[in-house]
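Please check both lines for our workbook:

___
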Amino acid sequence: MEYGNATCRRSTARLTCGSRGRTRGAVCLSTCLVALVGMWWWGLVTPALQADDAYYRTLLPEIPPPTPSPTGQPGLCDTLFNRGRVGRPRMIVLADKPRHAAMAALEDPCLGVTFAGNALSAGVEAEQADVATCVDLYFECVTFSWHYLTSRGASARPEYETAWQLYHNGLARLMNAGQRFGRLDPSRGLQVNTAVGSLIIPAIHRGFAWKPADFTRVAVIDHTAPRKLQRHYSRPGLGVPLVVIRDAQHPDRFLHDVTPFGATVILRPSLAVLAGTAPPIGANSSHGPLEFYNPLRTTCVTVGQQQIALATDTSAALEYMLETIPSGSWEVLMQAGSEAAGQEKLYMLEPRQPGKYPLVFVHGFLSSPAIWADIANEIWARPNLRNCFQLMPYQYPTGRPFVESAAILRRELQAFAKYYDPQQQDPSMYNMAAIGHSMGGLVTKLTVTHSDDRLWYAIANKPLSDINASQESRDRLKEMFYFEPVPYMRRVVFLGAPHNGAMMASRAVGRFSSCCVPRSTAERIEHNLLIKQNPDVFSPEFKDRIPTSIDMMERCSGLLQAIQELCPGGHVQLHNIIGTRCLSPLEGCGDGVVSVNSAQHPFVSTERRIHTSHRGLHQSDEAIEEILCILRRHILEANDEPCADEHGTETEIPECSEFEFVDPCPPETVPDACVELLDTTDPCPDTCVELLDTTDLCPDADHMLLKLEGPEL
């Protein structure tokens, strides 16, 4: 029995030890799992928190730690905030702490810089963790920093520059995060959650020809992205430049469905609203709306009693366009058949504004409207030009016969005038100008010349009325080969236009390209039927197959020779810009594609020869300078009132007013280089062209950026 009892006791002891061992093992295993999870969290999340983007590192300075209490006891800042894992201040998110912080900052605005820095740091962490609370934290950052900036004596303190950068960094992130988490509707407003409840901040759009419904979404400008424009025009100031993208729900006749345009956003939040001592929204609220300003129209904004320079970026929308519009490629040529038929379009970069002269851009072979970005950029950078010209690219498939593309352009111009000026009361509509590069120059020339019957008899030996064809085919041929100058077009600038043919058209690459242009089955059937029903009528150029644009640019083309002899209308001024960089033993001086002899035109009033290539002609500083000079001449010679605003107001507006139309077409003299007739000096000069002066209408903007103070707004 004792033995048995001893055995039982030993068995019980082993059972107890085994239970304790398993318990200890479970504890150790749990501890290891927690340690592994902690190591994974530290290794995965902490580097992500430390890896801020370049824009954040550029704008966000070193944020000061919370200010300790002078008595050595834990103060309000130490109570509300503590240090984060990555060494930056981190907000302890509690329901009523932001409200307490706002009340403290109302008494001491200096606390606002620390609170703003903590809110921005916490917002970055929340955004990286994909938490929508980051929108509210960025809003707190903007509110605290704006309160400090507008407090009395703030500009004399060392934290002022930090507060300025915190405001703009927080506002930029607020726009991004608000859109990402569905809190921002640029057409209506912004929703934020505060300690005193949800707040809807309405959006106001100032100085835009665009409608509020056109503000579909926004994109904050990435200043570290590579630039595609030769120059980028921007100016520091109050507000965050944005690109607004219009995604049209109801397409406009002369606007692309997706159109970007520039805007600068400003938010003037009230700290009293955040503290709960003022009504959030209403007539008695000091809380400002979300303001979108047009940087092409507004240069200064009123803050308190001061005029502060508005941050502007007139190049951002064009940079965005270059990311979305395809550049010249072989795809442009291959789409010249049935897929591209009917896709020709004349469109505006902004809504129509009465009083502005339509300026039409026509690209060349194997190209797209994207080539005009640099010229448009220079026009928008100059107030006296951007307020007077409505930029309108013409997009068309470049493989189709350019007589057909020109016919559609004439039709588009007439439809444009009828659509926006049916009563013919806008004189600017009768002062259109156009710029055509390469083959685009030939397309443009066919809008300002008389065809008579030269074009038709260049391809046929019988009158059009005697042709055996359907009425639809006859109408189509009549539109292409019989026309008069468009009465609206008054000035044309040719950039390397092959008036007497292009060298590449008759070479192997040109013939190969011509063979690659597809045609739809319906077009081939119609052409074959026309030739079959009219034997011995059409020339070999038209009889063998439907000629492409490349075929028509060969020097032996009878159609091209007939076009060269066409006379422009008496109301039209022609200008020529020719590239002279390359020297060919057969063609002589030229731009590598078009020789000087081919580019010359007998009816031009001015000619400028520039040492550049064919592909670089539209980007050359000298060519752009000449174009800008011609546009100034166009303004001076126009037979209507100078560039009124959209309300028809011609009264001079005070400098730096909130809705300013900057320098609306001031009287000026035209440089001699712009009006000199047929300058045939050295065709290959190497000159350094100085950029035109873009005078800042806020000359004190640089030092005013750090002197924004006054009573809270």
